[in-house]
Structure formats: C-alpha cells, structure tokens
Amino acid sequence: MLPCMRSTPRSILPSRRSLPLFRTLSAFTAVLLMSIVASADVLKVALNDTIQPITEEYIARAIAEAERRNDQAVLIEINTPGGLLDSTRKIIQSITSSTVPVIVYVAPSGARAGSAGIFVLEAADVAAMAPGTNAGAAHPVLLGPLAPKIDDEMKRKIENDTAALMRSVASRRGRNVEVAESAVLQSKSFTEQEALSQHLIDFVASSDNDLFRQMEGRTFKRFDGKEVSLHLAGQHISSFDMTLKERILNHLMDPNFSFILLAIGALALYAEFNHPGAVIPGTVGVVFILIAAFALNLLPTRFAALALILGAFALFAAEAKFASHGVLTVGGIVLFTLGGLLLVDSPIPEMRVHLLTALAVSVPLGIITAFLMSITVKARRNKLVSGAQGLIGEIGTAQTALIPAGKIFVHGELWDAVSSSEVSTGQRVVVRRIDGLLLQVEPLTPLRALR
Question: Is domain 38-241 in CATH 3.90.226.10, yes or no?
Fold first, then answer.
C-alpha cells in the first residue's frame, strides 16, 4: 500500500492560465524593490561663505546624514574666498573618512575656491569646476602682533607644513602634486581650463546634471585606494540646509557683525552705569557683549585689541572731565578704530573687520559717548535744586522782624528763620544755611544782590 501524501490545495497554486501573469507581477515587484534600494539621493551642500568652525560643523553633519541615509554621493557646491586652516583640516578629515563619495563643485560661474577652498577641492573624490571660475592662491598668511617677529626659518616651517597637506591630499587622489603644491608655495591661481589641463580637477561642467552626465560610468579613486564608479545621471538631488543655530552662528562669524554687537553692548552698559535702575540698557548691554564674546571666542581674536577698545572708552570719559577741546575724543576714536581693525587675526580680508565698519562705528560712538559723559559730569557739578538743600541761595521776604529770629516767606512756604543781623518786616533776605527746619539768612543788600 502506498503511503498517503498530503497534496497542496489547488486554490493556493496559480492555474496554468494565470501563471504568465503571476511571473510578470513577480518580476515587476522585484525590479521595483531593486529600484527603491538603488534610488538613493545625492545630498547637496552649498558652501557660499568663509571656511570657519560653523562651516566645518555643517559639512561634517551633512556627510554623517548622507551616510545614515545611504545616499549615493554628497555634492558640495563651493564658492569661498578661503578661511581658517584648522577648520580646513577638519573638513578634509570629514571628506577623506566619508564612506559616501564626496564631489566638490566650484560653482556657479564667477565663483572661486580661494586659499583654503582649493584644499577642500583637491580632497574630494571628484573635483569639478564651472566655466568662469578659479581656484588657488593658498599661500599661508602670517598675521598678528607676532608676525613681524617670526624669523625666516619659522616661516619656511609653516609654508612647508601647509604644502605637505596639499601634497598629501592631491597624491592620494591621483592628481598633479607639483602643480597643486605651487598654489601653496607660489600663490598660483588657476582658471577652470588650466586646472583641468594640469589635472587638478576631473571635470568642467556647466551644471549639476551636466557634471553627472560626464561622470556616468567613469571610475575614480577613493582615499583608501579603492576604485569605484557612480551612476548619478537623472538622480534626485536633495538640498541639505543649515539648522537655525548654524545660520545664526554663521552670521556671528562675521567679524564686522560681532564688532558692532560689542560696540552697542558697551554703549548700553555705559548708559546703565550713568542711569542706575534703568534695567533695559544694562540687559541689552550684557546680552550683546556675551554674544559678541562667544563669537570672538570661535574666531582668532587678538585680546590686545580689546585693550585698545577699553582704552578708547577711558579717553571718551576723560574728555568730559578735562577740557581738551576734542583731543581726547579724537584719540579715543583712533584707538577704537585700531582696536576694531586688529580685533580678528584672519588670513583673508573677508574675515577681518573692515575699515569702513570700524570708522562707521567708532566715530559716532566716540561723539555720543563723550557728549553723554559731559552731560553727566555737568549734572553732578550743578547745585542741588530739589528738596530742602535747594533753598540755599534762594531769596525770600521777611514776614516778621528778625531780632534775630522770626518768619520768612521763600519758595511759596513760610519758614522759621534766624538772621545774623536785624531784619525789618518786608525786607528781602538770602538763605545761607539750613539747620533742620530753621533757616539761617542774611539781609539782601544791593552789593549782595549784584553778586
């Protein structure tokens, strides 16, 4: 007897007639799932400012987000005059350690990757530039009060260290090391065609889509030595924006803005000190100064410049106390302007306080501060004109004879008074002293009246 075998219900199996349709649907589902898996976005980052700590944080966060989302690539569209070398090194570390390929694209036309920007460009897996752009001029700039004291040997050490960073990133990417190094040691700058012909970049493209079409099927070398190819033509590009915190801090990284905040805060604190209890000026002053201090802490700040700014306020205060006919005020304006110009020690002009900003802040601030200080000093020197002490020097009329005591009428009130000499009723007297509720007076003679 044959063993019984359990048969599969016919309702579960597809019929011969529906089998082709079943296979078609299965194949379509498989293709759809594969396309969903392979349709990761290209994450686009726009760097249109100087390179500083907030830029470093923004790019690192974008790369981490692309890795989390398993995106196909990160596209950094760059237009920068340069920035801080420390922040540039950290951006290079983020790019070279990224598991997602990073494309750096100097765009749009007229953009540049100046100074620190060319380091970021050469560190990319794929380097590209738009027509009408340039990159280079990456020679390290020595600024600050110690710059004139650095000897030639130390300058060479700094230059060689920076050049070694360029050689390192360019060689690992298989680019022209000698030409890339010349951007550091000789401050050379290159147009997009010069950079392409000398193998500093991989492509010249007019747009993102044009760049992706040129890259299609091309292999490139990653920092770890592996060769990969990208298929980005037609892929969706998603923008990665700064957070609100990063946007605020990015504005604060502008030394001109921080300098203005510092000046307004100092003026507000001065107003609070001269009008105790006003509260609002003091609150505004503390908030503005703390915000400016936070921003300056992230920037290469010269603290000697802050001493110049404090010295400027000292001269403004001295102008009110000593009649210098404006000499001290001019000296304060000069100190305040120099303090602003020297406040941030940056390798590029875009990250320093501009002369126009320094003058536009220091001149009005000096005039206003000296004017307010003079008003305050004059008010403190004036005779008290309120309360009982305000009666001293006032002229009244004797209501009774003062022999030597009696009543006088002064300031619309009747007072007890005593006189050093006899005063008849109706005679005018001048108040010389107050003892409690008793006024000490003297007869008002014609001579005293003239005085």
Answer: yes
> CA–CA separation, 192 vs 177, rounded Å?
17
Residue 295 class from Cβ within 10 Å (0-12 exposed, 13-18 middle, 19+ buried)? buried
pLDDT band, very low/low/confident/very high, at 196 (cuts 50, 70, 90)? very high
Residue with tokens 């030639």: 152
Supply the DSSP symbol for 431.
Answer: E
Tokens of 245: 């915190």
> So what's the pLDDT on residue 317?
74
Of 410, 347, 402, 272, nearest to 115 by C-alpha is: 347
For the chain, domain boundaries: 38-241, 254-381, 390-450
| CA-to-CA dists, residue 267 to 21, 261, 276, 355, 365, angstroms | 81, 10, 14, 20, 8
Amino acid in the structure at residue 283: T
Q: Are strands 73-78 and 42-47 parallel, antiparallel or unpaired?
A: parallel
Cα 377 from chain centroid (whole Å): 37
Q: What would the pLDDT profile of 14-51 be if each residue is shown by its tens digit?
A: 555 555 555 555 555 544 444 444 446 899 999 998 89
Answer whether 322's CB lies under 8 Å from 373's CB. Answer: no
CA distance 295 to 354: 17
Min mean pLDDT across 261-265, 335-339, 366-370 is at 366-370
The whole-number pLDDT of residue 33 equals 45
**What b-and-e string marks burial along 122-137, b requiring 16 or more CB atoms within 10 Å of the CB?**
bbbbbbbbbeebbbbb
The pLDDT of residue 13: 46
- Examine the pLDDT at 222 and tell me if it is beyond 60: yes
Residue 240 clears pLDDT 90, i.e. is over it: yes
* Main-chain phi, psi angles of 266, to 5 degrees: -65, -40
CATH code assigned to 390-450? 2.40.50.140
Q: Is 148 exposed, middle or buried (0-12, 13-18, 19+ CB in 10 A)?
A: exposed
Judged by DSSP in three states, 20 sits in helix
- In this structure, what is the dihedral angle of CA atoms 404, 405, 409, 415, given to the nearest 10 degrees? 150
- In this model, does residue 383 exceed pLDDT 60? no
| Alpha helix segments (H runs only) across 39-151 | 53-69, 85-96, 116-123
| CA 346 to chain CA centroid, nearest Å | 13
